[in-house]
Amino acid sequence: MDSLWKCFPNPLQVVKFLVLVSAVVCVIGRVECRKSRILEGSSDVFEYSAISCRGHSASIEEFGGVGDGRTLNTKAFQEAVNQLSQYASEGGAQLYVPAGKWLTGSFNLTSHFTLYLHKDAVLLASQDIGSWPVVDPLPSYGHGRDAAGGRYISLLFGTNLTDVVITGDNGTIDGQGALWWQQFHKKKLKFTRPYLIEIMHSDTVQISNLTLVNSPSWNVHPVYSSNIIIQGITIIAPITSPNTDGINPDSCTNTRIEDSYIVSGDDCIAVKSGWDEYGISYGMPTKQLLIRRLTCISPYSAAIALGSEMSGGIQDVRAQDIVAINTESGVRIKTAVGRGGFVKDIYVKGMKLQTMKWVFWMTGNYGSHADNHYDPHALPAIQGINYRDVVADDVKMAARLEGISGDPFTGICIANVTIGMAQKAKKYPWTCADVEGIASGVVPTPCASLPDQGPEKVGMCDFPQENLEIENVELRSCSYQIRY
Prior knowledge:
The chain is mainly β. The protein has helices at residues 2-7, 11-29, 74-84, 178-185, 276-282, and strands at residues 43-50, 56-59, 68-72, 93-97, 100-104, 107-108, 113-117, 121-125, 134-135, 151-152, 156-159, 162-168, 171-174, 197-200, 203-213, 220-223, 226-236, 253-263, 269-271, 286-297, 302-306, 314-334, 342-363, 381-402, 409-421, 430-433, 435-443, 476-483. The protein has a 20-stranded parallel beta sheet that branches. The chain has a 4-stranded parallel beta sheet with strand order 6-11-14-16.
């Protein structure tokens, strides 16, 4: 150190030299000193809530990322994730994406990892279809949804992971889906379109405080996973865009979806568990699902859909405080002969609906099949469906409830529901076939297969009293400082 003072009599020169040496060491050692990286200039402090805070942090710029909207950053993102994975046993690591437009193809996430997007950061999905890797169909589907065979991997993808956080200060992920939608309509795609975020076979997952726009297909798809929190998500797609479902929990256990706003060309929330014989064989239900404080706009689909791919079963779904505007239906159950599986113990409480085609819709005739090998004797069981405390206005038809002949939908309970009909409403507000249940305090009066139990029963159809495990999970307050 004494020799440094002899070489640089000015103290500021010594500081600059030490900073330069630190920068060189960081370049040589890559990740090892990123957490303490100090450069001249300003700094940003950002705070957020997460299931886990991280012991290490790095910026995508440190891996050569360029946020100019033109430079492809796929290799930079994947290298960053791979390098940061070495900290998994030390509290994990966080990858910070600063303001800018970051063009990228698909990249894989890792365990004990946080991806954080600055409020002015935009991940732009590459439109080079030929560069997207293709993966096998999901085993519980056995078939691509857009075409037979494989599917393009999702933009953000992870499998067999633990403790993963994808979050930000409302940063944006833009799927640039128009090209994909055009190719889909022209039937030119050889494989199924990618999703924006897909997490498979994983445990303890958080996706929060992001804006997702123009997904090629589904936006958020947790599948074969458990202990999932999805909150503070804004999803926007053109209302005519094909299959741009918002959030699709699929064969998942213990999931919490809350405080989200979705404008979509398809269902805002679509609950799934596999398709026909493939879903029956895989046998992994979606259960213990909480949906609350959701706002939805989807003129051609549902605020919440159960199915149609539900062959592994759906059980114990609780939806509360749902707002839907200009949406085809409030709650829709979709199934068919050949699906097998079950949808049971469904609880919906507190819906405010405006301008709907149907408030409630159940159908046992949703005949889309993976292939011709489904079992025509595999009948779904739909039972224990509870709706209460619903107010709707400008509705063309209160409900369309159609079970399956010889396999009725049973245990339907509807209470304290007021539906204001539109000026050009259907002549008969309710249609019912092959359904059984009860009602109380419902206007207009339901069909005869839902006999009124009297005003004293208006409090029936209520939620279970005990919380789901995922409701009791509290997020931690995390804070990081990025220096420039």
